[in-house]
């Protein structure tokens, strides 16, 4: 069930009859669709002024209602502006046959696909739900009701670890006047709240839809099924649902309670977004994603900027070794700074974003003023990506634990000898001349000061580092610096490592 029509063909377009013609002055649109459906198609497009890639959605306008829904979505998105867990629009246009939305490019796929593929743990579900709640609380604060919340309308930003989720498709959304109730019966039947079916509802109906989603995420089944819409509606209105399926046997009691608290028929007794974020199922399973950038974060960024090139490069690599909760939290923090949703932030934009994102007291202002963000740009492209950001702001005790160091060392030690060669280290970062010079200088000093004749005459490719030494260099221990952490030796494969 929905509020809009479908159908139509791709024939026709702008004033010259070509699809995307009205957008071509600013956007170079790829002719190949990356996604298609009853709504139309999605293509990649490149901004002609800065070369950045986005996604453009071409929506068929086969009826007056389609056009009305499109214009409504543009209007709603302009009121929403931007939130880290909402796929915001950057541009829009319309012609005789299509409505166009230029959006962030979200390449991670639908939440629905991960559920359908059974590629989600209960903890993964809790982390995902946290992002959805954050988006709902934001729009509900503006009295906006989504009205079509379902897994197909939630996308992962990308396929990388810790990817944030983005709420999409506001074609059916409505902004309520203060104290006003909406009466239009609208949405996808299986996810509709009882009050929607009764034609008298407010923002609480989205929380019911979230409850249906979580039920589906945890069990792989919808709570209110039927052979047709009439049967589904009858079950929704009766509140009939069951947790007796075998799939629920492995779900925690907190998870079941979370679903029950959302699928409450009376919207006034239904769990709110604020209470949902403080429910034990969320607090025990996921770090809160609401962390803001404050003086402590800026202080950590500053400490990172003062580290050696080698240390910063290794932290960048270790960013993906964090736990899912830690990484997800920090990636959401970066997402709040990434104003245009490209996945990278220029150094200038990062400076502005940090100032705007912090309630700057004197201490934070001083810390930010002395922060050299260019040190975060490891590849020298003038942009900071999420890995560079995460590597800079994660606390040492989170990243420098034994498991992470062990995993990174083993990943670099490609021949499994128990020591690292310069070739193995630098292979991670390409032809990085600055890193080569830094390590080269350190190795030359080691040859002069270690009184080890086995170093004499060896070139850089013959110098090796043990796991203990690698750890000491990363943590910059005073009792063992990089000069003492390099010696011309190599354990043969299978040989016991020296410590």
UniProtKB/TrEMBL annotation:
Domain EF-hand, first and last residues per copy: 325-360, 400-435
Region of interest called Disordered, as start-end residue ranges on this chain: 475-499
GO molecular function (one): ATP binding
Record keywords, A-Z: ATP-binding, Calcium, Kinase, Nucleotide-binding, Serine/threonine-protein kinase, Transferase
Protein kinase domain location: 28-282
Biased composition (Basic and acidic residues): 475-484
UniProt KW Zinc keyword: no
PROSITE patterns, per database record: EF_HAND_1, EF_HAND_2, PROTEIN_KINASE_ATP, PROTEIN_KINASE_DOM, PROTEIN_KINASE_ST
Classification via InterPro entries: CDPK_Ser/Thr_kinases, EF-hand-dom_pair, EF_Hand_1_Ca_BS, EF_hand_dom, Kinase-like_dom_sf, Prot_kinase_dom, Protein_kinase_ATP_BS, Ser/Thr_kinase_AS
Residues the entry annotates as binding ATP: 57
Family per similarity comment: Belongs to the protein kinase superfamily.
Official protein name in the record: Calmodulin
Source organism per UniProt: Prymnesium parvum (Toxic golden alga)
Source organism phylogeny: Eukaryota, Haptista, Haptophyta, Prymnesiophyceae, Prymnesiales
